[in-house]
Specification:
Blueprint (H helix, E strand, L loop, with lengths): L11 E4 L5 H12 L3 E6 L2 H13 L3 E6 L5 H15 L4 E4 L14 H29 L2 E8 L10 H21 L3 E8 L5 H8 L4 H7 L9 H11 L10 E4 L16
Parallel strand pairs: 1-2, 1-4, 2-3, 4-5, 5-6, 6-7
Helix pairs in contact: 1-2, 1-8, 3-4, 4-5
């Protein structure tokens, strides 16, 4: 009986940035739970691979090339989902990022990019999806944030600022869109993705340092985030306006990057 409540059969989920990493892991688990996944990414080969994998495993999905920071792209994604499937029940705002740069080296363009990437993308996609959810009388939005939003990380000031703003947007949306739409965020720690591994490979011993600085002494698994998204998408979920910390217990920066003092 309990597990039946986690069946998302018949629901339609849009997952942005689903071509790799965290977004890909979430998309896979939502599909395993029965949802039809509309996955988006800017790189066609990445999103096609994600959706092909979902379909090969018996799930349902649709791959769309789109930039979540573009309102015209977002309009196309939402209209396509409605035309093909008639509904949108879940939105996972996963895209985000920033360039590594020390504070005094951040350009105005870099700072704006971080904000657009992490915050404007969420605002655009949520504003486009919300009317359909309100009309249907239900919906669930999950924004993927970071521990960087609550404590600083050297060489990532723009990213830290943007993720903090994303969590503020989450709380504002949750208040205004309740009771029909639930809005929550998941603040991530260090997860085992190809992107993180590429960075760690450049610094021998950095993985061990990162794990040692994490109370659970390991990296996270992206499928774990998908399972939380499934819970947040269940009909009886009582959570909204919440920031879930899924980070192995860190309460400060665990980055092994050797950024010197000024």
């Amino acid at each position: 009986m309990a597990l039946e409540q986690f069946n998302l059969e018949g629901q339609v989920a849009i997952v942005t940035g689903a071509g790799k990493g965290v977004g890909q892991g979430i998309a896979r688990v939502l599909a395993e739970a029965g949802a039809t996944v509309v996955g988006t990414a800017r790189t066609e080969s990445d999103i096609v691979a994600t959706i092909s994998g979902i379909e090969a495993a018996g799930g349902k999905g649709l791959a769309l090339v789109a930039d979540a920071m573009s309102r015209p792209d977002g309009e196309r994604v939402v209209s396509t989902a409605i035309e093909r499937f008639g509904r949108i029940d879940i939105l996972i705002n996963n895209v985000g990022g920033a360039k590594y740069a020390r504070f005094l080296d951040i350009t105005d363009e870099d700072f704006k990019l971080a904000f657009d990437w992490c915050v404007s993308s969420t605002f655009i996609m949520s504003q486009l999806v919300a009317p359909h959810m309100i009309e249907a009388g239900r919906g669930n939005i999950v924004n993927i944030s970071s521990g960087a939003g609550r404590f600083g990380i050297r060489a990532l000031a723009a990213y830290c600022t943007a993720k903090g703003a994303l969590e503020a947007l989450t709380r504002a949306m949750a208040q205004e869109l309740a009771p029909k739409i639930r809005v929550n965020a998941i603040a991530l720690g260090s997860f085992a993705t190809d992107g993180l591994q590429s960075s760690l490979d450049l610094m021998p011993g950095s993985l061990e340092k990162m794990q040692e600085a994490t109370p659970l002494h390991r990296l996270g698994n992206v499928e774990d985030l998908g399972r939380l998204c499934v819970y947040l998408s269940t009909a009886d979920c009582y959570a909204t306006n919440a920031i879930f910390h899924v980070d192995g217990g860190i309460d400060s920066n665990n980055s092994p990057l050797p950024i010197p003092d000024y």
